[in-house]
Automatic annotation (TrEMBL), chains A, B, C, D, E, F:
One of its GO terms (biological process) is L-histidine catabolic process to glutamate and formamide. Its cofactor is Mn(2+). This is Formimidoylglutamase. Belongs to the arginase family. Keywords: Histidine metabolism, Hydrolase, Manganese, Metal-binding. Mn(2+) binds at H127, D150, H152, D154, D242, D244. GO terms for molecular function: agmatinase activity; formimidoylglutamase activity; metal ion binding. Binds 2 manganese ions per subunit. The keyword Amino-acid biosynthesis does not apply.
Length: 312, 312, 312, 312, 312, 312
C-alpha cells in the first residue's frame, strides 16, 4: 500500500519548481559526504555577562536560510553548486561552563579533522565561542588572521568574571593562538569600551578601525586592504562577525544593541569583499539573541551574511 | 573515523535519563509500523472568515508535546506504552480551496486505511477541517456521534461565503455524514451565534449545552451522560474541540477569543471524562492560531488536551 | 451610471444574512430618533494619577461590539428589538482639565434632556468620569443609588492631586450628589486601599463587600439583595463598573491590574443579575486602557458586560 | 432643541485651525463628484503563498493619512487644492479566489469609467492585486508602462500554486496586458529570486535594476531616465510599489522582510522623482501587513509615499 | 541656600497623605536596625535547564510592592507596624556556578546571624536557590519543615546536568538538610514529572497533593492540616512557592508555564492560611522571569503573596 | 559584626575593574558639590496633544547611561574627569497643568542659581518643557540662541488647546524669551506641519533647514555655520533635540514617529559638531516615550546624544 495524499514527515512548505532555497543545499554530515561549506552550531551563551539567549541563534539562523534562494542576479550565477554539510550543534552542559568551552573546541577540531569541506561557518552563541573556535583553527591550520566586525574590543580581563563573552580575544592573544598583528577590528564604537582595553589592543599591535574611520572612508576598501596585508603573514583568515557592529535599527536582536553602527548594506558589502579571497576559510556569526529580536530580523541579516560569504 | 563530541542532526535538548517526553513516543508513520494513536495535521485555515494562521497549529502543538512527560501521578501510571504514529501534515493548495478540502478528506481516509492505529488525533487548522475529517470517519467507520466543545454552533449557511470555518456542522448534517441526534454541543455562548442557527440546531435535533448549563451543573457529568446516550446509537464517537470554548484568559490564541468561557481545568477534566470510553476513536483540536498567542499558551493547552485523551 | 462592483464607504466586512451584529443596532443620535439604550463616550483620562490611555476605550469597546450578536440562546431571544442611539464622544480639552469635567457633566445632561432613550451606557475614560456622570443623573433624575464594582474605594482626598481617577466617589459624597447609604461597593481588595478611606466609607454609611465576601457567598445574591434594598430609597440605580474589579488574568488591559479579583463569569453574571430590575437606568464602564491590553481582551469583556446590561 | 456640548458622530480628534490633515481632503465618491486623485482599496491577500493580513492595509494606510498634513515647505506649497475621491474597498469573497480576482479588475474599471479623477492610487492587498489592476488600466487606457519597486521579480510560474502574490507580472506579460519592454524593475535583491525568473525577465526584455545598481548610482536618476524612455512608447505609466523593496529596518511590516534594501529616504525621493511626469497616472502600494508591523511604521511609510505621488 | 522646588534623588511618585505603600515600610538593613521581616534577593538562574531571566525577579517583585498598600479591610488592620529590612541581593558570579551556590548559602546565614528580624522572605531566582537557602535555615534553626507549592517534584538526579533548578529538593534530601517526612508538595501536575521522581518522593516519605487533590478538596484545609502535622516534628516551617504551581493564565511569566494549575485566589488563600502559624519563619518565591511576563502580572502576584505571608 | 557576603543596597551589577560606566560619574546634587554637567529631569507630558508617556523618559534615559562607558577611542580620551550632578526630577501636579509649567521653570532656575555646574542637560518630557526651560535660561543668562533638531516647527497657536507640546517655540517667541533670528530649526519635514506655521517662522526670522537641505548638504557643516553665526549675537546657545527629527527606524519610541528623517549617525555627528563650542551651555532631549519604544532603542540613542554633548 502506498499513499497518494499523505507524506509523513516534517512540515510541508510551498515548493516552486524553479526555486532552490538555500536550506535545500544543506545536508547533515555523514561519513563520506563532502561539501563546500561546513556548518557547526555553537549554542553557548550562559557565560554572557547579561542573560542571553544567543544559544538559540544556530536554530533561528538555520531557519532563516529558508527565506533565501541560491541565485545572485548581480553575479549572474545560481549557486546550486555550493553545498553545505551541517555538523549539527556542539553539545553543552547546563552548569559546567569550563567543560562546555572545552567541548566546543574539540567539536570544531573534529569537524576540521573530517576534512569534508573547504570552508566553514560557525554559528554562535555569544562571542565567547570565538575563543574555542579560533583556538581550534589555530591548532589545525597554523597562523590565523582575524577580521573582527564588532562594536567592542572583547579583550576584558578574566579576573572579574572568568571567561565571558567580553573576553574571547584576550584569551586568544594570551594563549598565543592569535597574534595582535594578525587581528583587525572594524566598527569599534565610542563610549562602548574601556580605555584600558583600547590601550591593550594598541600595545598588542591590533589594528583598529572605529566608526569614524568607516564614516570617513569606505568600509569595502578597508576590508580589502587588510585582507591583502594579512595574507602576507598568516596561513588562514577567519572572519568573526559580532552582529552588534550593526546599528540597532538594523539588528534589533543583539544583546548589546546601540545606535551609531553599520547599516545592513555596509555589513553585507564588507563581508562580501572580505570573502572573495581564498585564504578566508572560516567565519563565525555571534551575539544574535532570537528572544529579543523583532520578526527574526537579526537572524535574517545573519543568514544573508552567510550567503555573502558562501557564494563567491 | 567516528565523532566523540559531534552528533550531526536536529537541535540537541537537555535529556534527563528518567524522563520520557511525550514527543519521544512519536514516530513518523512508515509501512508496517503500528501504534496506539494516529496523528495527522490538517494545516488549513485560508477559508476562515477572518484571516487566520491556524494552519500553523499542527506544528506548534507538536512542539508543545515536548513540554510534557508521559507520567500521571494521579493515575499512578507512566504511559510510555502509548505510542503515536505521526502521518505528517496533509497537503494543501495555495489558491484552490475546494481541492484542498477534498485532499484533506482523502488524507484522513488514507490514514484510516493504513489500519495502523486504534485511535486518532487530527490537528487543525480552523474548524472547517472537521467537515472533511468527520466525513472520512463516516465513510470508513459508519455512524458517527460527535461531542463538540465550542462557543459557536458552526452551522452557518454556505451561500454567503462558501464553506468556511463557520459551516462544518451544517455541511456534515446536510451531506448526511452526521445526524442531528448524534451531535452534542457543549459550551455554546450567548451573543456569539445567530438565532437562525440556534433554531436550526433545534430543528435538527442537536443537543446543546450552554455556558449557563455548565455553570448550573458539572461539565464532567454532562459529558459522561452524553457519551452513554450516544453509544446506544452510533458506531464511533468523535470529539471535536474548538479551543474557543475556553475563556480568552486561558486560550488567548484563538482567532475568536471572548470572555465567559470554560476554564482550562473544566476543559481538561471534561475531555478526560469523555475519552475513557473505548467507543471514542477520534478527536480533533481546532482554531489555535499561534501567531496571535502569548507564549504558546493555547498550543500548550491543546497539547495537554491530547494527553487527557491519549492516556487512559 | 451606477456601480455593480463598487460601493464607496467604510470598510466592508463579511455579512451572514442571518446574523445581526450588536453594532448593527447602533445608530448615531439625530433629532427625533429614539432607542432603548443611549450611549455616550467620556474619553477622559488625563487626570489619572498614572499615565492612562483609557480615553481610547470608547472607540475600542464600540469596535468590540462588532464581535457579538444580538442572540441569547439561554434566554431564547434575539434582541434585535433593542436599539442603541449613540451620542458620540463628549468633547475634551488638551490642557484645561477642570473645563473638561464640566463639559462631561453638561454632555450627559444634554443626552438625558433629549429624552430619546430609557436606559443609558457611559463609556469611560478613567473612573474620574463617574463624578460628572453621576452628578448629571442626580440633577436630572433625583436620588441615585450606585452599585460600584471596584477593587478600590475611589474616595481619596482631593488635596493631594485635585480631582483624579481616585476621587470620584469622594467628590460625589461631598457634593451631595450621592448619599453614603446609597452606595454599594463590591469586590474591594485587600492591600489596594488606605485605611483612612475604608474608615471614610464606614463613616459615610457606604456598604462594602470585599473579595472575601465574594468568596464566602454568591456575588449574584449579594447584588440582588442590594438592588432590593436600594430601590426602597432611591429614584434610580446607576451601575459603575471599574473593570479592575476583575482579576488581571481576565482583564489585562486595566491600568491598575492585580491578582485575586473576580473572574469574567462572576462579573458577567452579577451585572446581569443587577440589570434585570427596571430601576436600573444607567451603567458606566471605566478603566479600560486599550494600549495596555492583549488582543483587546478587556474591551471584549467590557462589550460583553454591555450585552448583559442591555439585553433583559 | 440643539446640542451645545454633544456632537454625535465618529471619534473627535484635536483640531488646530491652521492645519489641514491629508485625510480631511478625502471624500467618499458620489455621483457627480470629481477630484484629483481616485483612491481604491484592493483588500485581497488570501492568495499569498504565506499567510498574509495585507488585506488590512487599505484601512491602516488610510488611517495613517491622518498623521500628515498637506503642506510642503520644500515645495513651498500647501496642497489643499488636491482632493481625493475614495471609492472604498473592492468586494472580496471568503473562499472563491478566482471570482475575487475578477471582481477586483471590474472594480478598477468601474472607477476609471466614472471619469471623476485624473490620477489613481490603488492600495493592496498583496502584490497579486497588480494583475487585475494593471489589466484594467490596460483595457481602459491602452499601452501601459510599469515602474516596479520590488525586491522580487514576481514572475513565478502559475502551475505550482495558481495565481499567487508571486505571479502578477507573469500573468500580465502572458495575457498581453503588459509588454516586457514596458516593465522596469528597481531594487531587485540577490538571493531572493530564482534564476529561471531572472532569465525569464531577460527573455521578455524587462529592464532590471538590482540593489548593486542602486548602490553604484543614484536611484533618482535611474527613475527619471526610465520615465523618459517609457514615455516614448506607452500611453500611460503605472507605478507599482512593493514595500518589501525597502530594508526591513524601515518597513518592518512587510510579509517578506529582509536586509539590504532601500532606505525610506531613497524610496520617497525616487517615487517623487517618478511622479512629476504627467504621464504617470496610477500607483499601487502593496505587501503591507499591519498585523506584523511595529507601530504602523510601514503604513506610515506607505502614506508618505502617497503624498510624494499626489503632491506635485 | 535651600531649594523650594527641587529635591534631588530618585524618581518622584504621587503621594497620597493617607496611603502607605508597602515599599515605604522597607529599609535597607544597617547594623542596629531591626524589623519584622528580613528580605533577601537570590538573583540566580544561570543553572536553569532552559535559559531563564528569573535572576531579574528580586528587582521586579520589589518594584511591584509599590503597587500595594499596607491596609487589609478584611482583617480591619493597617499593617504599618510591620517593617521590612532589605538585605539586598546576594552576589553571584558570571561563570562559576558552584561558587555562586556557596555564596547564596553564606548570604542567607549572614542574614540570620544578624538576628534583626523574626521572619524572612527570600526572592529567587530559579528554584535552585531553595537548596542553599533551606540549607542555611537548617544550619541555623534546626529541623526544617517545608511546604512546597509546585507543579513539579524538583527531585531530578544531579548526574545529567549538575545542580539545576530541577534538583533542589533532591539535594536537600540527600544532604540531610531536609527529611522526606518534613516535605509537603502541593499542586503537583500530571504529565509534568517523571515516574522515577514520583516514586522517589514516595520512597522518601514526602507528602504529595496533586491538582486532583486540590479539585476534590479545599486547598486551605489541606494546608492547615499539614501545618498542624509538621509542627509536631520540626523546629521551623519554610514555605517554598514555585509560581508555576499557578495556571499559566494567572502567572504567564514563569519559565515553565502550563494549563490546569491553581488560580490566583487559591494561591493567595492557601499561603495566607499557612502563614498564620508562628512556626512559619520563612518563605521563598521562585521561578518568576520578568522578561517573559505580561505587564509584570507574575511579579504582581508574587508581591501579593508576600503580603499574605507578612500581614497576619 | 560585618558582612562578608551581604551588601544591602540597590541592585548589584557586574563590575569590570577597568570600565567606568557613565552613570558612575553621576551623583545626586548636594549643597557644596560641583560638577561639569548639571542634569535635571522634566517629567511632564500630560499636555501632549496625544496621550504620551514621555514623562517616563528621564528615568529610562538615566538607566540607559549604564549601557555606556566614558571612553572615546576616536578622541583618545577617557572622560572620567567629566562629572554629572543630578538634580533629580522636577515636581509635577496630576491635574493642574499651568502650575506644573511654573514649577518646571522655577526648578531650572534653582538649578542655575546653585552655580554648581558649567553646562546643563534637561531631560523631557514632551517638547512643551522647552518653554519653561529656555525661559529660565533666558532669565538667568541673557540672550539665548537655540538650535532645534525637529521634524516640526512647534509654533502652533495656543488658542486651540492651550500650551501643548506643539507650542513651545510660539510661547518663547511671543514672551520675548527668544528672538526669531536666534532660532535655527534643523530637519523640518514635509507634510508634517501647517503652512501658517512655516510662514510664521519666516515672518519671525527663524532659520529653517528641511530634510532636503540635509540631503543636499552636510548636516555637520550646517550646524557649525549656524553656531558661528549665532555666537555673534547671543550670550548662550541652547540645543533642543526633539528625537522625532530621527527616522522612525532609528527612534521608534517617539510619539510622532515617521519616515524620511535623520539617521542615528547624522544626529550623533551633528550634536557633536554643535557641542564643541563653549558658548553651548545647555541641551534638552524631548519626546521619548519609553512605553512605545522597542528595547529602549530611543532612550539608548538619547543617552548617546548626551555623551556627544558632554564629552568634548
Amino acid at each position: 500500500m502506498s499513499f497518494r495524499y499523505l507524506s509523513p514527515g516534517p512540515q510541508r512548505v510551498f515548493k516552486d519548481r524553479f526555486t532552490t532555497k538555500v536550506d535545500e543545499k544543506k545536508q547533515w554530515f555523514e561519513q563520506g559526504r563532502t561539501g563546500e561549506i561546513g556548518l557547526l552550531g555553537l549554542p553557548y551563551s550562559k557565560s554572557s555577562i547579561s542573560v542571553s539567549q544567543a544559544s538559540e541563534a544556530p536554530q533561528s539562523i538555520r531557519r532563516a536560510l529558508g527565506f533565501y534562494t541560491t541565485y545572485s542576479l548581480e553575479k549572474d550565477h545560481d549557486f546550486t553548486d555550493v553545498t553545505m554539510l551541517d555538523f549539527g550543534d556542539a553539545g553543552v552542559h547546563p552548569t559546567d561552563l569550563e567543560r562546555t568551552t572545552k567541548q566546543l573546541q574539540e567539536s570544531v577540531k573534529e569537524m576540521l579533522d573530517a576534512e569534508a569541506c573547504s570552508r566553514y561557518i560557525l554559528l554562535g552563541g555569544d562571542h565567547g565561542v570565538s575563543f574555542p573556535s579560533i583556538s581550534a583553527f589555530h591548532e589545525r591550520m597554523g597562523r590565523v588572521g582575524v577580521l573582527q566586525w564588532d562594536a567592542h574590543h572583547d579583550v576584558r580581563n578574566t579576573k572579574d568574571g572568568g571567561r565571558t563573552n567580553g573576553t574571547p580575544f584576550r584569551s586568544l592573544l594570551e594563549s598565543g593562538a592569535l597574534k595582535g598583528e594578525d587581528l583587525v577590528q572594524i566598527g569599534i564604537r565610542d563610549y562602548s569600551n574601556a580605555k584600558e582595553y583600547g590601550d591593550y589592543c594598541a600595545r598588542q599591535g591590533v589594528t583598529v578601525y572605529t566608526m569614524a574611520d568607516v564614516e570617513a572612508g569606505d568600509i569595502t576598501s578597508i576590508v580589502k586592504k587588510e585582507i591583502q596585508r594579512l595574507k602576507q603573514q598568516v596561513d588562514v583568515i577567519y572572519l568573526s562577525v559580532d552582529m552588534d557592529v550593526v546599528d540597532q535599527a538594523f539588528a534589533p536582536g543583539c544583546p548589546a544593541i546601540g545606535p551609531g553602527g553599520l547599516t545592513s548594506r555596509e555589513l553585507l558589502l564588507s563581508v562580501q569583499a572580505a570573502s572573495c579571497d581564498p585564504i578566508v576559510k572560516a567565519m563565525d556569526i555571534v551575539e544574535v539573541d532570537p528572544s529579543k529580536d523583532f520578526r527574526d530580523m537579526t537572524s535574517r541579516l545573519a543568514a544573508h551574511v552567510m550567503m555573502r560569504y558562501m557564494f563567491q
